[in-house]
Amino acid sequence: MVAEQLEARGIRDPRVLRAMSETPRHQFIPPEEQERSYEDQPLPIGSEQTISQPYIVALMTERLRLKPDSKVLEIGTGSGYQAAILAKLAREVYSIERIPELADRAIRWLESAGIRNVQVRIGDGSQGWPEEAPFDAVIVTACAERLPEPLAAQLTDGGRMVIPLGPSHNQVLTLIERRGDSLLSEPICGCLFVPLK
Ligand code: SAH
User: Fold this and answer.
1) Of 23, 15, 16, 46, which is closest to residue 112 (Cα–Cα)?
2) 98 C-alpha vs ligand 1 centroid, how far in Å?
3) Which residues line ligand 1 (CB under 6 A)?
4) Domain 56-191 belongs to what topology?
């Protein structure tokens, strides 16, 4: 997976490549899909949601430029796999999931994988996690029509956010960077995510 899907497509950050080779993706995939854990595609994880294709996880993670002391917010815990990757690259990860069954299962799967620096909360992630703000990085793994204001407000100065934006049929993975009071925005690529509700 790492050589053929990530390195071959230009993922270069050695820390991201290492985190992805050290994290058993099959531990975050439901039993009925487990054989396909390392395939080059998204997979269903129940409740009509999906775990992203490995390349997209790597690309989003790389663009966040995490440091070992970073504090990260994830919106859309889903399986917990993206949170597990973030946890290996940053100090603390806060992750919000609106579907309780997915959140509860992700907590169990993260525990079984030995990951201790992720906190999962059930709720509407578009409001962010004000009690823990500001964050050095924010990653949104569901598509929003417009940038949710509270998330931008919870970025540190110099903080980076990766978020799919736009209508469901024309989504653009976007990098947002806070510089003082202004927000810089840069398109990364087209993408296809489940909607942010
Ligand atoms: N990052 C996940 C993929 C998640 S799919 C993984 O690694 O597996 C997107 C997730 O976002 C779904 O689980 C969905 O329930 C959740 N979601 C959608 N809208 C949300 C919202 N407003 N707040 C929190 N979670 C939301």
Assistant:
1) 23
2) 7
3) 45, 49-52, 75-76, 78-79, 81-82, 96-99, 102, 124-126, 141-142, 194, 196-197
4) Rossmann fold (3.40.50)
